[in-house]
Amino acid sequence: MTSIPRSGFSVTPPSERPATGALRLYGRRVVLRPLGPPDFSAWSAVRLRNEEWLLKWEPKRLPITPDPARDRPAFSTRCHARDRERLHGQSYAFGLLVDGGVVGEVNLNNVNRGPLQSATIGYWIDEQQAGRGYVPEGVVVVARYAFEELRLHRLEICIVPRNAPSRRVMDKLQIREEGTALRFLEINGTWEDHIRFGITSEEWDERRDELTSTWIL
Q1: In the prediction, which pLDDT does 9 show?
Q2: Residue 185: domain span
Q3: Is residue 171 assigned to a domain?
Q4: If pLDDT is split at 50, 70 and 90, which confidence band does 145 have?
Q5: How many distinct structural domains can be found in the chain?
Q6: Cα–Cα distance between 108 and 170 in angstroms, integer?
Q7: Burial class of 76 by CB neighbour count within 10 A (0 to 12, 13 to 18, 19+)
Q8: How far does Cα 62 stand from its chain's mean position?
C-alpha cells in the first residue's frame, strides 16, 4: 500500500487497496479481516446469541430495515456496502476472529482526510469471549494499521458512560479521555451522552513499542 504523509490530503488509489480476500491483520491471538457473504452463519449465530448484550449499545434499527442477523441477503448487502466503503477509503470494517471463528468486530469508521486525517473505532464482542483481552488486542492491531498504513493522525473512540465493558478496553489500553459529548449519538432510540477517548499519531509513536509488545508480539 502506498504510504502518504499524515499532513497530506491524498488517499491511496482504489486500485492499490487490497481486495477483501487479501486484507488480513494479525495480532498475537486474533485475526482481523473483512467479512463476506460466506460468513453469514457464523456471524448470525454470534449476533443472535448476544442480542440482549449488544443491542442496548447500538443505534436502533428501523422496523422496515431487514435484520442482517436474520436475513442472509441483508447480510450480503451489508458486506458489499462495507467493501465499497473500504475501496473508497471511507471505512475499514473487520471481523474479529479467534481460532478461526468470528467472535466480534473492530471497525475503523468515518475516515476523514483533508486537514482532519482522522477516524473513529467501534467494537463489539461475544459476551462469552469478553474479558479475555481480545478486543484491546484488536483495537491495537487496527490502530497500528490506521497510523502506519493509512497514515491517519487521530483516532477517536466514543462510549456511553454506563457501558462498563467498553470503558474497560480504554482503561486497559490507557487511551486518553478527552471529555463528554452531550446527547452525541442515538443509541437504542435515545440520544446518549458519550465519553470521547482519543489517541494521535504522536502518542502512537511514543507508545508503539509498549502497545505492540503487550498486545501483538
Answers
A1: 35
A2: 20-215
A3: yes
A4: very high
A5: 1
A6: 16
A7: middle
A8: 22
Question: What pLDDT score does 21 carry?
Answer: 57
Q: CA-to-CA distance for 1 and 145, rounded, in angstroms?
A: 11
C-alpha cell at 35: 467479512
- Report yes or no on 15 lying in a domain: no
Answer yes or no: is 1 within a domain: no
User: What is the average pLDDT score of the chain?
Assistant: 92
Q: Which CATH number covers residue 43?
A: 3.40.630.30
* DSSP code per residue over the chain: -----TT------GGGSPPGGG--EE-SSEEEE---GGGHHHHHHHHHHTHHHHGGGSPPPPTTS--TTT-HHHHHHHHHHHHHHHHTTS-EEEEEEETTEEEEEEEEEEEE-TTT-EEEEEEEE-GGGTTSSHHHHHHHHHHHIIIIIS--SEEEEEE-TT-HHHHHHHHHHTPEEEEEEEEEEEETTEEEEEEEEEEEHHHHHHHHHHHHHHHT-
Share of the chain above pLDDT 90, in %: 89
Considering the domain boundaries, does residue 191 fall inside one?
Answer: yes
